[in-house]
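EI: anyone free to look at a 381-residue chain?
SC: sure, send it
EI:
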Amino acid sequence: MGGMPRVDYSQSPFLIIWETTQACDLACKHCRASAQPEHNPAELTTTEGRYLLRQAAAIGTPIFILSGGDPLKRADLFDLVRTGADLGLRMATIPAATPLLVEPVVARLKESGLSQMALSLDYPTAELHDRFRGVPGAFAKTMQAVEWAHKHGLPLQINTTLCAESAPHLEEMAALVKRLGIVFWEVFFLVPMGRGTALGGLTATQCEELFAVLYQVQKENRFLVKVTEAPHYRRYVSQREREEDGQRTRPDEPVAHLPRQLIRTEGPGRSIGLATQGVNAGNGFLFVSHTGDFYPSGFLPITAGNVRTHSLEDVYRRSDLFRTLRRPDGFKGVCGVCEYNAICGGSRARAYALTGDHLGSDPWCVYRPETRPQAVSPAPI
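SC: here you go
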């Protein structure tokens, strides 16, 4: 097991995602970007992308993800992977399951220095998954790519989106991913934006039920489980851990089954782990749009500058937006007074999407704080 230096979130994002393009040949129902097949001519150029990678390395960010759209729609993808790897960044990407994804591409990604590849699987059957992704054959293509990743020694991550329609299939999805030889399972709790506004959401009570499934999966398997846009999962895990160890830990202490800030060796490759305390929008995390805008999260469309006019360092360390997001005791309502807000903080993106206030409470959290309950008003569950 290899280690990674701890990252001071006030100074550097642990993880940066660059949406290299919004071009994609799928038509996924949940797509926050409402991706279309054609490129936006205002996308960052290769030169600008290299500049962004250099800034990320200089500020001390260890992990950099090239996302989309479909990053395979960019002819310079391999060059960007190599540039980042040569700078010492742990590079990952998320190709879409289209005819562009073929075995030589997977092999070349590995040769270019890619540390980890992610594939999306939202349902346990081809019929359901293909309907959700908008293209027949997406499930079969993904399963092919799983085999190619293993063949070429590329650590594999599976991404799954949870919404009202897909949540009932979570246990079946867990059974499927257990068989795929993955190192990382990232489960996204829907934030309604883009095409995702047409999908049904979850209740706070449903989230707790889904957390129970994910917690058991993490306890029983070697691969890491990362929950995205549901940071209250960390509160849930802390509560479970405290129950199981006789309340010996404090609510704000890291717990054993949260994703770790580690790089784990898996066969011939290395898998990317995440920080023990977890990342949140603007707090250990930064998103760069296809046109260069800096966001705290791809699901929180409030910009603090653009790579063409601002430095990554200035935006992350000194902008009011990012600094405010790193002070969870300044959040409003439940999230501001919760004793777990140092390890959780609620989904800033969902608060914004559902309430219009990125500092408001996350409506999908059922928990009522033990501290200052008089300051908290009930939320629908």
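EI: The first helix runs from residue 46 to 59.
SC: 👍
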